[in-house]
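tool=predict chain=A
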Amino acid sequence: MRVWLFFLVVALMAGAWWLNTTSSAPLSATRLSASVSSVARWRPGQPFPPLPAPPPPILGKGLRRIEPAQTVQPSSTSVVSAPARNSVSRDEKPRLASRNLDGVASGPGGASYPTAISSFSSGTRGNLPLRLPGPATIGRPVRRVPRFSTAAAYRAYAERAAREGRYGEAAEAFRAEAAIYRRMGLNDAAALQERKAARYATDVRLFAERAATPGEMKTLYTGAKLEPFAGCYIGAFIDRDERLTRTFFGDNYQVHRHPEDFARLVGKPHASYFMYLSYGQPFPYTWVSRLKAEGAIPHIALEPRNMRQVQNDAYLQNFARACGSLNWPVFIRFAGEMNGFWTPYHRDPALYRAKFRLLHQTLRRHAPRAATIWCVNSVPFENIASYYPGDDGCDWVGINVYAVPFYDNDPRRPAQADNPLALIEPIYNRYARRKPIAICEFAASHMAAADRVRRTALAVDKMAQVYGALPRLFPRIKMINWFDMNNLVNARPGRQLNDYSLTSQPALLAAYRRAVSEPSFLTDVQRADDAPPPLPRPLLAEQKLSGVARLSVWAKTYVPRPKIYLHVAGKIVYGSNEPGAHVVTLNTAQLPAGRQTVTAFVFDERNKFITSVSSPVVVR
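tool=predict ok
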């Protein structure tokens, strides 16, 4: 009996020792590399600094070694409420508030952290325990990608690095391959490899919700027609949402759903709704008038059979006058996706440009409150510029982009690992400095015709990636519309490929409600004398925090749902692996006054440390 007890005690002690060592042992290296832009994004090209020494001062003003943990007493906080809804538009320039803020800084957390840190209460705590799941240290130096002379060599290196878990190297090698294709003029091939790089690249940034500075406003707002000076209009296509049971007929025997029913389901009124209209059909007065009564902006996707149908005739003149008679904002998206071979106006860019300019000039003459949107499809990219009608030939630039399980419904071409932001970025980079950008159609499929497998979690991830990134990474995107339709049922034959319905899946609907709840997503027409909505802007070096502060973390890496931990003034205040942006509401009265450090730590699903980013703040 005593022998049996002796072996039992030994076994228990061995088990306790094993648990302790496995929970605190250094994790294997994640090979990442970094470079710094004006908003301190990490990119391949530089290794992490050696630890535990402080990182080299590559980030300029603001980068600091993280201070030791401090003790803070628990307390509760309040949550910022959303702004009130408005309903009137004006054309005056906005009057903007000024903030004395300058400098941008964030960088890697150079110090190693204990696996458990006590916390104080914050407005949003996340869904994970408030302790780091492992040491925040890089185990081995990052290997630099060798220089190759051919694209094929870079691709082979990238694919091997991805198989071996060296994701930072894989991203860098795919980008190097893409650069070769760009130099050769093969832009579509380059875009394909850049999408592969985006699967593995890591990008982590810190933000604070604040008014934009006057200097920032010069890049956020260009004064284009119907452009909100700050924030992003949210919109949707809802006329095929079968959960919206109330309907009404429009002027062209079209069945429409009630916007207020959709707003009730998603928890927030929307600033715009769109419909499709064949060129030559009567102007949709009934539908447009209904939206005007709701305070929403009508968005008409006007689609001709061909470009020669569009003439300077009575139909075009009357259509433009009808828009003008409303005395209300209207978006006209004319002949979209012209870069795609599937459209009937694809092959003659010169004719397309001439007809688009004709419509734009006619609307400008008769409908001063109508804005034209030149809208491309996200692919192909190679021929897009040839269809552009010129800066004086359109008001906005739009893009249609969809997240699907399989490209072209082909199971041999999986798309689940691709990030839709990689499809948006090339258009944004080319046109956003000159024009406000509209995502005219976006949706994430939760079922494909190829296999009929329900993938609600995948759709939630893609939605959260896009809506969470817009106000932070793409502030010049001033409108986004969800395409709320089950194409498996309601699309025309040959296009019944994916289910994009928003309200049919409770988890997807709940995720959408969360995504659009941020104040930067606008619910109606923005007036010139409205107070600018608070925006998630880059957290500035030495930024002053007082009262209730809303910080957020944007993190994208090689796993769809990385674990994010926010460390403020010596405490872990937030931990979550939910997709999208991570917003944390803090009551700064519960923080030590003076200079503190804010750090975001990123781990993968196996608790391997990926990276961290830090910035000093001043608590008042």
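Residues 1-12, 14-123 have pLDDT under 50 and may be disordered. The first strand starts at residue 203 and ends at 210.
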